[in-house]
């Protein structure tokens, strides 16, 4: 059984977020965290008794922060805050996103700057460990003052209200799920409703998950590109390290080295590598693959740097400082995360666009160097992969629209108190959609390139690309009369997203 992840005052890693979000790994609070939480709570309780109002402790919120709330109404204040802020709409977001949000909010609370009670931190950890996922709706966050509506839905669950998905995927009332798992609802006290809702955990969680998905997809696109390059009788000389060193971007060097390794020992490449080979000016979608794939890798590296900084951050407002002061701040603004979420949508669209161009070249009899039209078994009677490329084109067109930045928009809210917002949640949602589309585009290139490599027989592909073809052929037959293509695309997509394709190819790379 996987050991639970220790959550305390230290940063957590991207790998830990993925483990909790996707693999159901549990959590435990460190003793250092418990001391920090109790120390901060003591400061909040002292301020709660003081005659001077303190924002988030004894006042209203946002544009209503000028009203002092008497002690006997403060439980009502917290309850009202959570209920009113749990104003999401639309479809539920994916459980993995909600689990990531819960973990990231737990880590901020455990850092000891939010002033919540230890009972509240324990309740959030217990919810994660029980495998209960609050129903969080897709729309409602502006990415400023944190992901308010999504986080409020989680806080609502801690109060025993709303709905959850259980470990079996059933959507049930929270009260029912709590009874089945032996959990108790909590009554929030001073500062706690605000601390549970005022963070960028939704957009950050989605950034971490997207970064993991894009890293894998960029390894996959090197594979499908190598297959297309090989099948189109293109040269591998342009990937030589001495050429890449002239433009020393690390991502470019990595992709070029991977393409070289993927094409090593290919009989197809060797067949036209002699002194009479004139293939030194291949189309850009072939020749410039390392430059585009590499730029995407470097963009991802920047996004991962931002994610790591955010995972080391405490995002709340107000915060409890070491000397006991409770101070307002602007760290909840989602701009740092929103910008890189938007940034990543650009290479997602561009990498997919280049893959679609390679596929189209494989299907075009005038540019495919001897392959049949549309890779059809009997062109005219059969259409081959003609319409599969339509699917790619439709997805790529959508990805280009999704690459338009969300973070340049801002709609003022809360009576103009929150007059500039990040839209980071929206940037994250469209990036997830973009990655979904990229996987489909790569699946189609995998299908087309594998068929093209089959058609180059008796020449054999490289051991690496040959392993990719062999894996696909265990699920999808080779060339023959037209067949229902949608299931084949779905199977290829599963090989891309599950890691099976990379698992098959990686052992053959030097």
From TrEMBL:
It is found in: Cytoplasm. Coiled coil: none annotated. Belongs to the PAL/histidase family. This is Histidine ammonia-lyase. Pfam families: Lyase_aromatic (PF00221). It comes from Actinoalloteichus hoggarensis. It catalyses: L-histidine = trans-urocanate + NH4(+). Transmembrane segments: none annotated. Its EC number is 4.3.1.3. GO terms for biological process: L-histidine catabolic process to glutamate and formamide; L-histidine catabolic process to glutamate and formate. The gene is hutH. Keywords: Histidine metabolism, Lyase. PROSITE patterns: PAL_HISTIDASE. Its main location: cytoplasm.
